[in-house]
Amino acid sequence: MAALDSTKLKIDSRTLYRPPLEELKTVFSEALATNFAEFSVEIVDSPDLKEKPFTLAASGLGGKPTILEVGGPSFLLPLVQREKVYDIKTLAPLVGHGDKSLVIGAGGGPWPYINSNCELMTNVLLDKPEPSESSRMSFVDKSNRACVLQVLPANETRFALLANLFLSEGKPGKVLKVYAKKRTGENDFIATMQKALAIRYTDKLVGLGGTFLIKEGKAKQHVMPDFSKTPLRTPADLDDWLHFYDMSAPLIAVGTFVSAETDLDLRVQHFHSFSHHGEGGHYHIDTTPDIVEYLGYFTPGEILYRADQPLSATSFGKD
Q1: How many CB atoms sit inside 10 A of residue 181's CB?
Q2: Domains of the chain from N-terminus onward
Q3: Which residues pair with 247 in a beta bridge?
Q4: CA pair distance 255, 165, nearest whole angstrom
Q5: d(Cα 87, Cα 168) in Å, to the nearest integer?
């Protein structure tokens, strides 16, 4: 199936408030102190994120940091709208990014590629003559219900239904280095920081993108099976349909989080993880709080683009 014509998508934009990194350091430190036994937030020069353990498609997160949200759960619930297939290679130039841009984040995978629903871990450098071969998808094996993680070919840049993406020029630069170990509170690593943004910036829209590593422990993650033939009308329907797994570190997650949903019906946090041992999916929370260990690198975005916003919002399916 061909992707939708990106030039015909409705795209709104919002300038993001970009707090000084020192200010974000304080905001996140205060929040992490209530949820983790050990933590640190530092302003550092980005390490080479192309290297292990992160293995991103570009070295850094710097250069025109942009958040892009496409579609939404309303295109999946209660029944799928299969025609909602997009192509990041043609969409990126419409939001100020083209060749040499790094795109990372979470989304619905290119179901036409395997003729089945799947999760997407976008990790691609939009380079010529074709993108890098770094993005991955995970899907449910129909024979044994196991999670399967697969690297996508370089020319497969489609995604479906929804995505929360961070785009940049992949350049080195100053970033927030966030470390946390031994979770003592109820909030997961990303939720801790997202809720801190929501509390601090009630009259401004703030958004960050980046990557984090679960160095130790396990995490609850879901993988969508093939599209449901019966309507998913309630949170219980959705949970019964999804397949949940306890996945093991090391897991490399990519995605975005913002301070509020706003009238753009934003998803306040969305991260998908992949690994080099065959596991990957939609991150929910660690399941081994006593031993979990996180390391992340994040940067605030300058502008947010909202593409193909659904006409009606769903009241669930955004966690």
Answers
A1: 18
A2: 12-307 (3.30.1330.80)
A3: 219
A4: 6
A5: 17
